[in-house]
Design goal:
By secondary structure, this protein is α+β, with helices and mostly antiparallel strands. The protein contains four helices and six strands; from the N terminus they run ααββαββββα.
């Protein structure tokens, strides 16, 4: 087996693992139904350099806030946040923070056999 054949085999393996992670991420996306967050997953495999890299990401503009969470939101002085959907009050001055739901990292951990090290914040 020469280097080109080995590289093709590894690239195919990375491509399959990346597709598995993508499928798991789409299946476990927070929320319900087929909303924008679930429809906005993408994958890419870059085998042009010395290292073969598979990537899965979400392009929804708010995906980072769902994945990583966010702190509390306060209205500017003299302003209010809203209108909010029922059963909440129509307008409020602040809302609590939301914990992250790291479905992409969890999909990576579940869909492939190799160890995953989470980055510290």
């Amino acid at each position: 087996m020469n280097d080109a054949e080995l590289r093709r085999i590894v690239a195919d393996h990375v491509r399959q693992l990346t597709a598995d992670v993508l499928a798991e991420a789409e299946r476990t996306t927070p929320g319900s139904g087929r909303g924008e967050l679930q429809r906005s997953h993408h994958m890419d495999v870059d085998d042009s350099g010395p290292v073969i890299v598979g990537r899965v990401w979400n392009s929804a503009p708010y995906a980072i806030y769902v994945h990583e969470g966010r702190g509390p939101i306060r209205a500017k002085p003299g302003k209010a946040l809203g209108p909010l959907p029922p059963p909440y009050p129509r307008f409020v001055r602040r809302v609590r923070g939301a914990a992250g739901q790291p479905w992409l990292v969890e999909a990576l951990e579940r869909a492939q056999p190799y160890p995953v090290r989470r980055r510290s914040s």
